[in-house]
Amino acid sequence: xxxxxxxxxxxxxxxxxxxxxxxxxxxxxxxxxxxxxxxxxxxxxxxxxxxxxxxxxxxxxxxxxxxxxxxxxxxxxxxxxxxxxxxxxxxxxxxxxxxxxxxxxxxxxxxxxxxxxxxxxxxxxxxxxxxxxxxxxxxxxxxxxxxxxxxxxxxxxxxxxxxxxxxxxxxxxxxxxxxxxxxxxxxxxxxxxxxxxxxxxxxxxxxxxxxxxxxxxxxxxxxxxxxxxxxxxxxxxxxxxxxxxxxxxxxxxxxxxxxxxxxxxxxxxxxxxxxxxxxxxxxxxxxxxxxxxxxxxxxxxxxxxxxxxxxxxxxxxxxxxxxxxxxxxxxxxxxxxxxxxxxxxxxxxxxxxxxxxxxxxxxxxxxxxxxxxxxxxxxxxxxxxxxxxxxxxxxxxxxxxxxxxxxxxxxxxxxxxxxxxxxxxxxxxxxxxxxxxxxxxxxxxxxxxxxxxxxxxxxxxxxxxxxx
Length: 468
Description:
Blueprint: H1 4-11, H2 39-52, H3 54-60, H4 62-65, H5 67-73, H6 78-107, H7 109-132, H8 136-165, H9 170-203, H10 208-243, H11 264-277, H12 281-295, H13 299-306, H14 308-327, H15 330-350, H16 355-373, H17 377-380, H18 386-415, H19 417-444, H20 453-467
């Protein structure tokens, strides 16, 4: 187990003395827990950063955790049920480009984080209210409002991380944030069925009233995240005064004209991203009934196996991120992740093997792909285009998720789960073809994306020495 000194080394604790004055009084150093430069204070900030997105991730998959209940209590077919996910994605087709701009130029990081947290809270409350009064269109509005805040809140969370931990093992912090996000998704998958049962006992029968009450209770996690946003705003403002630093900014520069300059390798990365993720999130959204119908699982067992992707991702993300950092070979790792995911989906589609095996494979490969794919963008575009590249990548990912969510619901209603799994396998095959093309295109252009970590370090050292 990592001891305190090890954590200090990882997070980059500093030996310099705390600044005099400020909250500690004139001429007196600040206590460790109150000094923004010291590890104990940064650990407190890290805790609030991690919980900032907990509510958003907890409530995002409320429909998946209560798939049977939502469909029955609101009298929906699967296509209409999947609109709850599509409505989350639609605003982010556009907002992914402008989330950083709003934080940098309009609201600032502190106010922006609070505003986006409010959107998440209000959206969840509207969603719950729609279920309470049995108005599905109101539920859709709630998910749309929730989506406005959800993705932009993630941008704000990353901005805080860069501000407080840049140069201090930032990758570890990102990994911990992702782990906490997946913890939120896991808790949701495994507790919301129990909450619904308690609400059913309270109101006397299952139905839209019990469903709405359950979703309203879930909104409490969004209120907790809003509280974290307010606390972070206070501490960031305080650190700004003590350290005389500027307010945190994303650093993103959004220029749509940069799109025409994107290289072929980046477009292939985009295809991999869309082809892969549309076979993960929509499947989880529809997974509960699949495991009940095909494997005769109870609802509790179905929720548990449906959450295994998130359970594995929580601890695996920082570990696999460390492995990718140390080995390099990003394209190879992405290819491994896609192949393993395809194997998992084929097992679910064509065999009756215990689904825990296939879902565990999906969990590991999902974590591995996230660690290897997203950093590659920084290898193929110059720094001034990173904001545009990541914004475009998130935008088309959300567009793909919205369209595939609608398509998967329609396929399930008309053709059943077997054809739906074949459809997901096809999406993963498209991602596999794209990553194979990426490997050969990159190889013909010098192999920058698939270099080992040692080769990259050597090139960076040579570039630094030449610049000097």
